[in-house]
Amino acid sequence: MIKVSVIGAHGRMGRTVVGAVDSADDMVIAQQLDAGDSFDIVNSQNTDIAVDFTIPSVTLNNVLELVKRDISVVVGTTGWTEEKYEKIRTALADHPEVGVFIAPNFAISAVLADYFAGVAARYFESAEVIELHHPDKVDAPSGTAIHTAHTIADARRAANLRGIPDGTQNDTSARGEVIDGIHVHAVRLRGLNAHEEVLLGNAGEQLTIRADSFDRGSFMPGVLLAIRNMATQSHPGLTVGLDSFLNL
């Protein structure tokens, strides 16, 4: 049995993770921590994998604390930057057997949409990303959309494409955030859960790639997949993206 401790266990996603682990035949909940709880109850003897679904302001410190305790971590909290990744890599250098896995999104549909966007982006002159979420989401744009923008930009660079055409010259406030040369738009609307559209266009044609997650349960197959991979296979160091475990 894989012993799983959940950090942020009382939050919306944390409670869903606890339920998914409880329902899995090969896993058991070891510890449940939330805001104010001490990490002293989590150690490498009672925990095989820790899962962090907290908030961006605390997740880095949580991961660093778990690495210090020689516990591998699956992270679903967003808000990661290259600077934060580098702090994780530095901490892992002293713990070569420990792995940290961070996913911008655990929904299989979203991971595939990101992958397909990278495949298609080299064939289109224009590309934009629209992400749509519930209004309680604390970050904008989403980590998924940021990751997709980088995926598209990488594909365009590999294909030696020029900059995306955009006639706006002065006031660009309505054009969304520009991430790696790609315009990304964030919608926050009551009734939504988690959705992303990638719009790709050429003269006379358009390709739309859309992923919709209607319920938090849609993320659980990806979370369980990550837990199993981190617990049963050798993944030391930092791994980013569920596509690492999908054989794409």
From TrEMBL:
UniProt key word Thylakoid: no
Chief place of localization: cytoplasm
Pathway, per record: Amino-acid biosynthesis; L-lysine biosynthesis via DAP pathway; (S)-tetrahydrodipicolinate from L-aspartate: step 4/4
Chemical reaction(s) catalysed: (S)-2,3,4,5-tetrahydrodipicolinate + NADP(+) + H2O = (2S,4S)-4-hydroxy-2,3,4,5-tetrahydrodipicolinate + NADPH + H(+); (S)-2,3,4,5-tetrahydrodipicolinate + NAD(+) + H2O = (2S,4S)-4-hydroxy-2,3,4,5-tetrahydrodipicolinate + NADH + H(+)
Subcellular localization(s) per the UniProt record: Cytoplasm
Residues noted as binding (S)-2,3,4,5-tetrahydrodipicolinate in the record, renumbered to the chain: H134, G143, T144
Dihydrodipicolinate reductase N-terminal domain segment(s): 2-106
Pfam families: DapB_C, DapB_N
Positions annotated to bind NAD(+): G8, A9, H10, G11, R12, M13, G76, T77, T78, A103, P104, N105, F106
Recorded GO CC terms: cytosol
EC numbers, comma separated: 1.17.1.8
Gene3D superfamilies cross-referenced by the UniProt entry: Dihydrodipicolinate Reductase, domain 2 (3.30.360.10), NAD(P)-binding Rossmann-like Domain (3.40.50.720)
GO BP, sorted A to Z: diaminopimelate biosynthetic process; lysine biosynthetic process via diaminopimelate
Organism superkingdom: Bacteria
Domain named Dihydrodipicolinate reductase C-terminal: residues: 113-245
Keywords tagged on the record: Amino-acid biosynthesis, Cytoplasm, Diaminopimelate biosynthesis, Lysine biosynthesis, NAD, NADP, Oxidoreductase
Family: Belongs to the DapB family.
UniProt-listed PANTHER family: 4-HYDROXY-TETRAHYDRODIPICOLINATE REDUCTASE 1, CHLOROPLASTIC-RELATED (PTHR20836:SF0), DIHYDRODIPICOLINATE REDUCTASE (PTHR20836)
Function as written in the Swiss-Prot or TrEMBL entry: Catalyzes the conversion of 4-hydroxy-tetrahydrodipicolinate (HTPA) to tetrahydrodipicolinate.
Summary of subunit composition and partner proteins: Homotetramer.
HAMAP family reported for this sequence: DapB (MF_00102)
Entry protein name: 4-hydroxy-tetrahydrodipicolinate reductase
Organism: Bifidobacterium aquikefiri
Lineage, highest ranks first: Bacteria, Bacillati, Actinomycetota, Actinomycetes, Bifidobacteriales
